[in-house]
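Retry 2 of 3 after timeout on previous attempt. Resubmitting structure tokens to design endpoint.
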């Protein structure tokens, strides 16, 4: 009203309409006015005409329209029960009809604003603590972005940008995402007005909490509980991307222009005897599920495992049918197929088990038959040894061994036959970059993640049918197994209907 020509007309049911205007700060008297509907209409004209200095700093019409659109979309996220529409430059920008109450209606509104992919890959959350209630939707970790532009936080219905809330968000996803990847979330925090100060910023975009630690704990625990409920679910966009890459249009095609076709560039068709020999290689397997004549197999081909136990293919991740390039497990599901990255999947399983042992304080260890001596720079060796007691709680027992060397006597039981040299050197390098006053336990997630990566099944290891199916069953029973410790997917699921579309069957 102080910087433009503002008019407000309002009418309630069964009443008269009234109007009031404000022209550059001059407020008129309340007067009756014609108004056909019910509700309120606000009209602003000649914005900043009364303050020419501010008028000069307006951006382009396109930029200002985008800012208006972003503001209205944020309001629409908070109130799915209210319809919103925006018209600019004579054309409709968006229209969001009112949605019914409940998670389904709210998710429909969010999907309309953030895209249907968010609706397909978000899990609901609900948590309460000391009078504060946290609700909303969190994207599964594999549904991430390179920028933090899809993170929306609302406090008592008002969109805010708060450092505490953003820090809590990073903490909740720390176990699942690489540092340069960001989750997609929409969170609503409602708490008594006496517990929050909204007058920190002129635009009220920042807030301060009376009990900041409690609010941060509520956000972290609420998000982690929701992600745990998601189980081994991975983003549907991963399989969509894979199917897009596999579309027939991505493969080169030869369209002959003459009746005679030049076949010199085509591979020769296999003779019947060759096909018979190849079949023999795949079908003759020993009790381990390995091919008897692996030397006859073309490098990178799949080894068909033993016939899975009855009912295995009815599990969510199906039954293992083959291993490709000694890195990927191919499983058949009731309505499609799953391709699993064996290293990434086992890395997550080992990591989650390590965390469970740490929480219970019973980390199993295994003594090395021959203690391993590891040469390090003097500074790194000293830093490791000053934290030896804390490493011992993780199951990694270190001792001094002269200048610039440490002796490893025991490793975590879950580490298996991992690379001890590489693990210790990586841990030493990590500690050098840390604040020396930081407790090691505050970095247990990264330490365990490093151990899990070093101690998990490596790519290039041939697995038996029993080992592959055991890995699949463990994934189904382990939370967050849909992504590795760095946020990459551990498996891709392709539905049979989509596969049939690739071959023109649908």
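Retry 2 succeeded. Sequence:
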């Amino acid at each position: 009203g102080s910087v433009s020509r503002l008019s407000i007309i309002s009418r309630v049911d069964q009443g008269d309409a009234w109007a009031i205007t404000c022209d550059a700060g001059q407020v008129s008297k309340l007067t009756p006015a014609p108004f056909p509907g019910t509700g309120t209409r606000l009209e602003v004209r000649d914005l900043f005409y009364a303050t020419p200095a501010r008028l000069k700093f307006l951006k382009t019409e396109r930029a200002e329209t985008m800012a208006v659109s972003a503001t209205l979309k944020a309001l629409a996220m908070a109130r799915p029960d209210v319809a919103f529409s925006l018209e600019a430059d004579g054309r409709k920008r968006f229209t969001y009809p009112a949605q019914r109450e409940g998670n389904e209606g709210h998710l429909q509104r969010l999907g309309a604003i953030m895209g249907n992919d968010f609706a397909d890959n978000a899990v609901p959350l609900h948590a309460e603590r000391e009078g504060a209630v946290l609700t909303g939707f969190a994207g599964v970790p594999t549904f991430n972005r390179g920028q933090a532009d899809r993170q929306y936080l609302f406090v008592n219905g008002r969109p805010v940008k708060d450092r505490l809330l953003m820090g809590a968000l990073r903490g909740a996803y720390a176990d699942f995402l690489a540092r340069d990847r960001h989750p997609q979330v929409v969170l609503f925090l409602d708490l008594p007005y006496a517990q929050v100060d909204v007058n920190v910023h002129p635009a009220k975009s920042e807030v301060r909490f009376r009990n900041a630690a409690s609010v941060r704990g509520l956000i972290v625990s609420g998000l982690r509980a929701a992600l745990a409920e998601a189980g081994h679910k991975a983003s549907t966009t991963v399989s969509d991307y894979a199917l897009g890459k596999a579309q027939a249009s991505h493969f080169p095609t030869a369209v002959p222009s003459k009746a005679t076709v030049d076949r010199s560039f085509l591979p020769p068709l296999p003779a019947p005897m060759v096909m018979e020999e190849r079949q023999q290689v795949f079908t003759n397997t020993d009790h381990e599920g390995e091919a008897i004549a692996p030397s006859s197999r073309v490098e990178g081909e799949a080894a068909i495992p033993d016939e899975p136990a009855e009912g295995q293919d009815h599990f969510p991740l199906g039954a293992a049918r083959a291993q490709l390039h000694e890195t990927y497990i191919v499983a058949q599901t009731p309505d499609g197929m799953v391709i699993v990255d064996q290293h990434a999947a086992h890395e997550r399983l080992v990591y989650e088990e390590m965390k469970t042992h740490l929480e219970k304080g019973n980390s199993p260890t295994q003594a090395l038959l021959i203690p391993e001596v590891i040469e390090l720079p003097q500074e790194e060796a000293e830093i490791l040894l000053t934290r030896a007691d804390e490493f011992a709680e993780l199951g990694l027992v270190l001792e001094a061994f002269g200048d610039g060397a440490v002796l490893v006597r025991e490793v975590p039981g879950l580490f298996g036959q991992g690379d001890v040299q590489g693990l210790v050197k990586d841990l030493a390098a990590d500690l050098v970059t840390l604040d020396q006053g930081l407790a090691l336990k505050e970095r247990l997630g990264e330490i365990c993640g490093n151990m899990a990566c070093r101690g998990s099944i490596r790519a290039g290891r041939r697995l038996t049918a029993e080992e592959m199916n055991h890995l699949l069953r463990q994934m189904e029973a382990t939370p967050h197994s849909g992504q590795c410790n760095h946020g990459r997917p551990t498996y891709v699921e392709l539905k049979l209907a989509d596969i049939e579309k690739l071959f023109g069957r649908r």
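Attempt log closed. Residues 248-306, 435-442 have pLDDT under 50 and may be disordered.
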